[in-house]
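Table 4 source record.
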Amino acid sequence: MAISVISKEVIQFLEQLKKNNNREWFTANKKIFKAREAEAKEFFNALMSELNTHDDIEKLKMFRIYRDVRFSHDKTPYQPHFAGSFSRAGAHLRGGYYLRIRPGESFIATGFWGPEKNDLLRIRKEFEMDAGEFRKVINAKPLKSVWGELEGEEVKTAPKGFSKEDPNIDLIKKKQFIFVRNFTDDEVTDPNFLNEVNRSFKAIRPYFDLMSDILTTNLNGESLLD
């Protein structure tokens, strides 16, 4: 089976769309868009197949290229990128994967973008009790060499109910727990890009395993899924 790739033509089309982000140009180039979109969808589906060799992916969501401009200052009608997210299957598997193809700004991301209130509190309580295992996982060489440092927005001071003197306050203050890896256009169009993205996502598995365990148990280690 041929390896799926992102062609240079996909990048070139998106570059042109960024420069001509208007309905007239897009309508005139609709046939080209459909062809490039099909290429991108093929790549995303191939990536889902690869992910399913080491994880359990429930669904792929490809994001529409059309922007909702009703409440935005930016009135350009199109997103000059192809992007999609991959959801893990079942309540016991937490976390998700994301890929965006955009000229000069392509990246993959993984982790927890917006934990809902109860999940965020559970994570913070875990750190308050002991963050040793979490730090060990995110600083392990196989993960850190691929993804670097943990990223994500955080509150300015200690969340309500937590001490600002807590030794793990750096983690407790976080609202997001994500990892991001950027790629150049040359890397995106390289024949090995699919394997590299899949390898990167595979490297995050120890983090997902730990976070899934935290989010599906209480502080006593008892399952919340029964």
